[in-house]
Specification:
This protein has ten helices and ten strands. It is an alpha/beta fold. Helix 7 (171-188) runs parallel beside helix 8 (205-220). The N and C termini lie far apart (119 Å).
């Protein structure tokens, strides 16, 4: 290679480096680079805007002093992991504190290497997912409220609570029913809980097992569980499946279940003349 070609290559390489740096600076996603001591050596414009500071203010600062995230200075720090040679390139969620407000992020870390493939620091790419997380929290809260509404516990009489069930009973619904019943037992000092399944379209082995678990849990709390609303179709299904409900009291109607509850508590209903 002659001198002219060598100079042209140097110029082209310099142009490529400058272009790459300009692209990195203008990426709309926050990007940060640190050295092996976790001191900031680069942050693009999006990153500076994200934290509300210019690069000169944070240059040379420890990254954990700027972000103060839930992972900072803990074994969960992905930046520290990649600098130490671990594979921690998978994007993970985190939360940081910026100007006294919590921001939820998803970040990815990668090792920063020199021309000889030696790790000299780390790179981090940050995505603000605060809106997404808040929407997820809102949906979770709405789901919780819907579950509570769909599993109402009603105090029917002194120490007698009825839990009408409508729809499908899956594992999540069964857990919600159990939680609701156990809370009612504690709150009202209940001695009998009537689980009315008249609105349950079908009972299979899984549903029956859920009901048995709920009945056993209430018994451990010193409360009897009566299952009412056993339709002819449900009764046939239970028999055909060979399901043993054990010592659980069952009734076809809520009225009969309430009569049994009165008998268990030695209540006597007298018609007033």
């Amino acid at each position: 290679m002659n001198e002219k070609d060598r100079i042209n290559n140097q110029i082209n390489n310099q142009i490529d480096d400058n272009l790459a740096l300009q692209i990195l600076r203008q990426i709309p996603t926050p990007v940060m680079a640190v050295d092996r001591d976790l001191k900031i050596i680069f942050m693009n414009q999006a990153g500076c805007s994200f934290i509300g500071k210019n690069f000169e203010e944070i240059k040379g600062s420890y990254c954990y002093s700027i972000f103060n995230s839930a992972h900072c200075q803990t074994p969960e720090c992905r930046m520290k992991k990649v600098i130490e040679g671990e594979d921690a390139s998978k994007a993970v969620r985190n939360e940081i504190r910026i100007n006294d407000r919590t921001v939820y992020i998803e970040y990815t870390a990668a090792p920063l290497k020199d021309d000889n493939d030696n790790i000299i620091g780390g790179l981090e790419y940050i995505l603000d997912i605060t809106d997404r997380v808040r929407q997820e929290q809102k949906l979770k809260e709405q789901s919780r409220i819907i579950m509570e509404i769909s599993t109402p516990a009603i105090k029917l009489w002194d120490r007698i609570v009825v839990l009408p069930v409508v729809g499908v009973i899956d594992s999540m619904r069964a857990q919600q029913m159990m939680d609701t019943m156990l809370k009612q037992i504690t709150k009202n000092s209940s001695k009998v809980i009537i689980l009315d399944i008249q609105g349950v379209a079908a009972v299979d082995t899984a549903v029956a097992n859920h009901l048995i678990k709920i009945a056993k849990a209430t018994k451990l709390m010193g409360c009897r569980c009566i299952i009412s609303g056993i339709s002819p179709a449900v009764a046939q299904a239970i028999v055909q499946l060979g399901i043993d409900l054990g010592e659980i009291n069952t009734n076809s109607t809520l009225e009969d279940a309430l009569s049994d509850a009165f008998a268990l508590l030695k209540f006597e209903v007298v018609r007033k003349k």
